[in-house]
Amino acid sequence: MALAGLAMLALAGVPAHAAVIPGLYLTGVDASGVRYTNDGVSDLHYVVNGLASPVTYKHPVYLNVSDAYWIAAEPGGAYTYNPNTFTLNFDLTGFDIATATVSGLFAADNAIAVALNGGAYQFDSTGYSTLSAFSFNTGFVQGINVLRFKLTDSGPPAAFVVSGLSGTAAVQSASSVPEPASWAMMIGGLGLLGAMLRHRSRKIRPA
To answer: pTM value?
Structure first.
C-alpha cells in the first residue's frame, strides 16, 4: 500500500504540457495554412450546411486580411439558403478539455455568429470592414469538436473570414516517462519501504 502511494506521488509530479490544438484552420487557406489569393478555390477545411465545401470569394470592398481569405457558400458570394451554417471540426483526443482554449477574429457580409458544439450562438459580428474577437474556454468535449459559424445576409453577395484562429490545451499521456526528480522520489521511497520491512522482520523474528 505504501509502495502504491509513493508511486502515485511520484507520477503526480509529471507535468502536463500545453500544446497547440490541431485542425484550427483559418478560412481560405490550403493544407499547409497558406492563404489563397484568388476567388473560386474550394476550402476543404470548412463544410457549408453539412453538404459541400465553400469557395473563396472577396468583394473589392471587403477588409484585406493578411493570414486568411474570405469564403462563401457558392461562387461569387451567391447562396441558395439563408442563413448558411459553416462548420470546422477539430480533434481534442488526448487533450485535457478542462484546460482547452480557442480564440480568433472574424468579419462578415452581413452578419455572423459562432457556436461551439451544441452551445448557443454568440459573439455576433456585423460588417465587412473590421474584425471582431471570439473565444471559448468551456464547452469542449473529448474527441471531435465543432465550431459552427452562422452567416446571415440581407442580399447577395455574402461571405465571411476567420483570422488568427488558434487554441491550446494541456496534454498528458498515460505513458509519460517520469522526470529525474520523479525517479529519485520513487527510488527513495522504495529504499525507505525496504528498510521498514527489514526492521519489521527483525522485530517479529522468534527468540
So the answer is: 0.77
Residue with cell 482554449: 101
Tens-digit pLDDT profile for residues 12-25: 444 457 899 999 99
Question: Do 152 and 83 touch, CB atoms closer than 8 A?
Answer: yes
128, 107 contact by CB (below 8 A) = yes
Retrieve residue 142's grid coordinates. Answer: 473529448
What single-letter DSSP state applies at residue 162? E
| Nearest residue to 59 via CA among 49, 71, 47, 67 | 71
Pairing of strands 84-91, 46-48: antiparallel
Integer Cα distance of 50 and 91 in angstroms: 18
Q: Which helix (H) or strand (E) holds 14?
A: none
- The beta strands (E) that lie in 153-194 are given as 159-171
**What is the model's pLDDT at position 197?**
52
Cell of 77: 458570394
Q: Return the C-alpha cell found at 47.
A: 463544410
